[in-house]
Input
Amino acid sequence: MRILAIDVGGTGLKAAILNAEGELVSDRLRVETPHPCTPEILVNSLYGLVSPLENFDRISVGFPGVIRHGKIITAPNLGTARFRNFDLAAALEQRLGKPVRALNDADMQGLAAAQGKGVEMVITLGTGFGSAIFVDGRIGPHLELSHHPFRKGETYDQQLGNLAFKSAGKKNWNRRVRLAIENLRSLTNFDRLYIGGGNAKRISFKLDPDVQIIGNELGVKGGAWLWRD
Output
């Protein structure tokens, strides 16, 4: 089985074809995410992105927001008002002619990262803040921790997103990341925490042994796991 995996990000759209084991069997393609973006613009952009990729049987999509049964509930970095209730899976299935499964982008990255032992958590530091949690390899309900209060009356998204990095500076942003890890440890008692996203490389403090940075390619590779029973 060949799977077309798509990772929708706040700044970039990525895609590649995987085999059933999650190995890339094509080039990994990327284009900038259009802004402003509407459902129609997004679908057209994804169609153009994946046009060079051929001979796939299934499609997996990671989306930056809450998504259930293929329908978008929230899209903080693209515009919830525009995307709410948009059936992304159905739209792509109609346009590309193959079965589509879609879920939150942090969840999809976590599918590739999780080792299946105990409580594992994934956070993504990119345009915004994403999270996913797994118990013995099984994905848990998606919790929008990004919009929960974090510090000084602001949310994790407001304090740790890319705009916050630019305004607060690297030193202060790293202090916030360290505090966020402590908060999440107290909240979940995770056995392992994985940190992904484009800004993970900006972490400058020493991580605990049970915390590790993971590559952004896992955001695409997790698409293979989405089709496993």
Remarks:
- The chain has two domains: 3-105, 108-219.
- Helices lie at 39-50, 80-83, 88-96, 105-113, 156-160, 162-168, 170-188, 218-225.
- The CA atoms of residues 29 and 52 lie 9 Å apart.
- DSSP finds eight helices and 14 strands in the chain.
